[in-house]
Amino acid sequence: MSGGHFEYQESYLGYIAEQLEKDIKYNDVEYDLAKSADTPYGFQHQPETIEFMKNMVKELYNLEELLREYDLAVSGDTREQNFLEKARLVYRNSEVKIC
């Protein structure tokens, strides 16, 4: 597969989602000077913030996947129909209005 329409920058969305997942995982871990410098720690966010972060992670992964599918379609590696099928699956249970 080639793609390249977005110069593969859509993968950066996955990186952001992964970082949010780490922030969620370590949220309750307080910073401790006694621990090594590479010990992960959290930000002690409120539960509501964590719930929004979980939603953002899901949306970022979905958008990354959709952009990749669109990229492949406009680059001639797949068809527009492939993109539409993926978009319909992603947005079927979403509150996003389909034009």
Describe the structure.
The chain is mainly alpha-helical and 99 residues long. The chain has one domain. The protein contains three helices and no strands. The chain has helices at 11-25, 47-74, 80-91. Helix 2 packs antiparallel against helix 3.
Describe the biggest sheet? Answer: none
Q: What's the domain count? A: 1
Q: Helix-strand pattern, N to C?
A: HHH
Strand content: under 5%
Unreliable sequence segments: none
DSSP helix fraction: 55-70%
Put simply, the count of helices is: 3
Radius of gyration: 18 Å
Query: What's the pLDDT, averaged over the residues?
Result: 91
Distance between the termini: 29 Å
Shape: elongated
Count of distinct strands: 0
Classify the secondary structure makeup into a structural class.
mainly alpha
Topology, element by element:
Elements: H1 11-25, H2 47-74, H3 80-91
What descriptive keywords fit this protein?
mainly alpha; elongated
Please summarize what this structure is.
With 99 residues, this protein is mainly α. It is 56% helix and 0% strand.
